[in-house]
Amino acid sequence: MDTGIGRRPSPVLxxxxxxxxxxxxxxxxxxDPRFDPVREEFARNxxxxxxxGAGVCxxxxxxxxxxxxxxxxxxxxxxxxxxxxxxxxxSVGKAIVALLALRLVDRGLIDxxxxxxxxxxxxxxxxxxxxxxxxxxxxRAGVPAIREPLTDDDLWQWDRMAGALAATxxxxxxxxxxxxxxxxxxxxxxxxxxxxGGGTCGEQLRAVVGPLDADVWFxxxxxxxxxxxxxxxxxxxxxxxxDFDALSGDELMTMLSYFNPPGYSSMGVVNTGPWxxxxxxxxxxxxxxxxxxxxxxxxxxxDRLLSADLLAEAASPQSTGxxxxxxxDATFGLGFTPTTPRRSFGPNPGSFGHFGTGGAVxxxxxxxxxxxxxxxxxxxxxxxxxxxxxxxxxxxxxx
Length: 399
Known about the structure:
It is a single chain. By secondary structure, the chain is an alpha+beta fold. The chain has 12 helices and 15 strands. It has an 8-stranded antiparallel beta sheet with strand order 1-2-4-3-14-13-12-11, sandwiched between helices. A hairpin with a 2-residue loop joins β3 and β4 (about 65-70). It is globular, with a radius of gyration of 20 Å. The two termini are about 20 Å apart.
């Protein structure tokens, strides 16, 4: 895989004027002239679409063609975003923790249709003995929320979170339906990874990304946290008190999935040291756009990170239908999300990846050879946005 900066065009430095005349937004990095539309849309994100700080990186057939950063690491717009600035990319991490589990499948250490309880006996509690790794990877395991009331002090303790998840009675018979495991996914798949692979998710991720020079983390060490951009939420970024006693059924399940523990979705804790240090792989992975793109570029290299057959299976639809947590129809692969009209990774079938809250995204398109990473710190509702759609569209318009 060619990631050599020396093979890229000369860097460009732009200054895009922010809506406030006294503040200019720096955009810097490298862009192949063929992909100037991506650079232009990236700049327009700041000038017209409210972007605060972000990075975008695109590789085609392993060659870097876009590697840009811009804007600011905090709402005060004092510190410019740097090439090594890290930011929470939310559910982009689901595909990455799933990749760790899939690599164990490739090694023959666990099978997709093995019961989770075969490696995690406590998980059989409450009638979950039939839940398989496949069910877990495609959001059919029946545990999108933990029933036991938890605190944010619990959130920093992996064993406490995994234990509470294992003890939870399933919300449905595993394998019979799906619901997006918005936050529990990381502890569910991550505990399987830990028990089978013999190390934490963060430790096993280092072994994968080190050879790729991909700056992506689960559990960010304190010496690296000075590089973090602050996440800026539309509104307060907090959460009102939720009266769980007044809820039942899927509504209760959904609210618990987001807010038990209260900071499970990062609300109120996102820019703190404990949040950045903890491993919550579904939600608090940190990285650069370049790091995300390099992982997806490596996935496009035959048998480098996954065998071709297993990757094809993981990137194909495994569960389709209405999701009560998302409130709409959804299609899930095995950790990766296959491209769909609702959540598109470009015009070509076969693309796969994952969006994150606020618009961060990583994906690969085998047909075009595109690997794409985009991270940002200004969180706006849901996954799709005018910002990431403009960037993705510009990539394929440039091919």
